[in-house]
Specification:
By secondary structure, the chain is of the alpha+beta class. The chain is built from 5 helices and 17 strands. A hairpin with a 5-residue loop joins strand 7 and strand 8. The longest helix has 19 residues. It is elongated, with a radius of gyration of 20 Å. It starts with a helix and ends with a strand.
């Protein structure tokens, strides 16, 4: 797992990645602490965490790793997703990270804050099947074998009304409708589960990837 690799890698090696006194190891740990500290519960009882992080540095530190910001952003987003999955937390929307400069910070110090930004509405998200075909999500949206389903899936392992994608103020979630063979998200059987960008829904022999556009 990326989180374990990043958190156990030698500090000297990680510091060379951005050539600054602040290592990705420190930032990864602080990111996870902020996400856990700012967690809350939505109306369905799901734990949700901030989906936008602002990481501030001194001007000197910012200048030192300016050329590696995109790499660092990708790594920290992966760390945050792995942390959320390990804790069964959901994000309030697609995760993003911005870097900022704080003139009050000393060299070697960083500051991380989290925000809940508006979740995407249903028409900004799609399902992508194994053939690469995009299916617009219009909630509530039934998935199953019956012709009245918004997403018709064939196969004996698919129930007539298998699952439903719904939306609330925090984004999208999938509800298994007491199907015979169950619904999986990222390989784990779920009954009522918050959906994140990049999640893989498995129903019968079908796999559908959730993407925010």
């Amino acid at each position: 797992m990326r989180l374990r690799r990043l958190l156990t890698a030698p500090r000297a090696l990680l510091s060379r990645v951005i050539r600054a006194p602040i290592s990705p190891l420190t930032l990864a740990r602080k990111t996870c602490r902020i996400l856990e500290k700012q967690r809350t519960t939505d109306t369905h009882g799901h734990v949700v965490i901030p989906n936008h992080l602002i990481i501030a540095f001194s001007q000197r530190d910012r200048d030192r790793f300016a050329g590696a910001e995109e790499t660092l952003r990708r790594e920290l987003i992966e760390v945050a997703h792995e942390f959320a999955n390990s804790k069964h937390f959901g994000f309030g929307g697609p995760l993003s990270i911005d870097f900022a400069t704080n003139p009050k910070l000393r060299t070697g110090k960083s500051q991380i804050s989290g925000e809940f930004r508006d979740a995407p509405i249903s028409d900004e998200a799609v399902l992508i099947n194994s053939d690469g075909v995009q299916i617009a999500i219009t909630t509530p949206q039934l998935l199953g074998r019956n012709e009245d389903c918004g997403v018709v899936l064939t196969g004996s392992n698919v129930s007539r009304h298998h699952a439903e994608i719904r939306a609330d103020q925090h984004g999208l979630f999938i509800v298994d409708l007491s199907s015979t063979n169950g619904s999986l998200v990222n390989g784990i059987a779920v009954a009522n589960h918050r959906l994140l960008h990049g999640d893989i829904i498995s129903i019968g022999d079908h796999q559908l990837r959730v993407e925010v556009i």
